[in-house]
Predict the 3D structure of the following.
Amino acid sequence: MIITRTPYRISLFGGGTDYPDWYLEHGGAVLGMAIDKYCHISVRHLPPFFEHKHRIVYSRIENVREIAEIEHPAVRAVLSETGVSAGLEIHHDGDLPARSGLGSSSSFTVGLLNAIQALNSRMVTKRFLAEEAIRIEQQVIGESVGSQDQIWAAYGGFNRIDFLRDGSFAVSPLIVSKARERLLLDHLMLFFTGLSRNAPEIARSKIDNLKNSAEPLRAMRMMVDEAQSILTTPEADLLQIGRMLHEAWRLKRDLAPQVTTQSIDEIFATGCAAGAIGGKLLGAGGGGFILFFVEPEKQQAVRERLSTLIEVAIDIDRIGSQVVLFRPDGFHRS
C-alpha cells in the first residue's frame, strides 16, 4: 500500500496569468503558498478475489473491470497515462471540501501520480509531478485550468512561480524572515462560503474573455512584483498586502461575470465592514473559500460577523506532495 499526502494552496497574487492561453504569449507569474491542509490518496494492488478489477473510493464508489469504464476523469487519465495493468484500489480523503478554490483537483492529480509512481518503485522529482499533472489535466482530460495549482501541490512552500513564454516555469522561494512570515499568517483569515462551483466552467469563461482582459491581467501580474518587494523588505508596511488583495479582487471580478455572486459580495462586504482591510475569493470564483486580511485586534469582530461560516486555521506546507506510507501488499498481478 502507498499513501501520499499532497497540500492545497492559497494563491495571493497573479491568478489568471497562469492560463497557457495567456502566458504562452505574455508570460505570467503568481505568488502564494501551499497550506497545511491535504489531499490523502491511498493506492494498493487489489487482491484477485473480486469480479471487478479496480475499485475507486471518493465521494462515490466505482467498481470497474476496465480503466476506460472509470468515470472519475483524473483517475481514468492517470491510470491510462501511467500504463497501469494490475488491479488497483484507490481511496481519497480530503481535509477540505472539493471544488473550493484551494486547488483540490490538482492536489488529487499530483497525489495520485505520486502514489502510482511509488507503487511501481519509482522515485520522481517535484518538477516531473507538476509537469505531468499539468499535461494530464490540460491535454489529456482537456480541462480549462491554469498551471499554478499543480506546482503548489508538487512543490509546497511560500513561493513566486513564473510562467515563461516557452511553456516552462520557475519556482522561487520567497526569502522572508520567520517573524515576518508569521506576521503575514497572523493577518490572514480563511472562511468557507458554503458554496461550491465548477472551476473549469468559470475558467473557460475567463479564457474566452482573455482578449478583453489584457489590462487587468497585466495589473495582476505587476502585483506579484510589488507584493514580493513588500514581503521581503522588513521595514515595509505589511498592511499594503491587505490593500492589494482588495484591488486584486476588484480586478478579478472583471475577468468574467461568473467570478462572483450576490452571496459572495455580501460576505465580502460584511467582512470589510467588520474590519478586514481586504480579501479575495480563492480559485476560479463562484464559491469556495474567501480569504481576508485583518489586523489581529479586529479579527474577533470579523469572526463574530461571519459566525455562520466555517473558519479554517492555516499554516504553510513546506514539503509538497510526499509518500507518507510504503508497505508491500503482496497482491501484484499483471
About this structure: DSSP finds eleven helices and twelve strands in the chain. The mean pLDDT is 91.
